[in-house]
Amino acid sequence: MANITPSIAAVDGQGIATKATEVAQLVAGKPYVYGGKTTDGFDCSGFVAHVLKQLYPNAASAFETNVAGYMNSSLFEDVDEANRQPGDIIIFPASGGAVNHIGFVLDADHWIGSQSSTGVAKVKFKNTYWGGRTKKYRRLKANSPSATTLGRMSMSFGAYA
Q: Which of 24, 42, 117, 160 is most exposed, with minimal Cβ within 10 Å?
């Protein structure tokens, strides 16, 4: 059972998006590294894990997974595209020869992730490559409306992938 408690007084989706931007600035100019999990170079899931571990250090092991793990993790809930918010994860499931990919929603027009062509970078949702791919959005349950409405600052979850 993972207990998700943020390292600061409160973390919401905007806090996740802000941390992702801070990490991107820290690693500006560093290349994508397949399997990378450090600020020396990230792959897509390594970048997502690094950001979440910075905010939720007591649950760090829960974020040590690949894209498929994030797609199936019980720590997250699915969100409709129309309801996506900053801090939600965006997943591009494998299809048509393309591999799985993951990042964070930043705002209404952009997401951020580590791409093999750019390293960690901000991307438009309508980008010619990514815009046409199938997308799935997921939200950390600790940041769901029901959790934040109840004023919970930590949540316990069952098994995770």
A: 117
Query: In angstroms, rounded to a whole number, what is the distance separating the alpha carbons of residues 60 and 97?
Result: 31
Looking from the CA of 91 toward its CB, the CA atoms found within 13 Å total 22
CB atoms within 10 A of CB 8: 10
Residue written as tokens 């930043």?
106
Separation between Cα atoms, residue 13 and residue 111, nearest integer Å: 13
Interatomic CA distance for residues 82 and 138, integer angstroms = 12
DSSP H or E run through 24: helix 13-26
Say if residue 33 is exposed, middle or buried (CB neighbours under 10 Å; 0-12, 13-18, 19+). middle
* Separation CA 125–CA 111 (nearest Å): 7
pTM: 0.84
pLDDT in tens, 24-74: 999 999 999 999 999 999 999 999 999 999 999 988 999 999 999 999 999
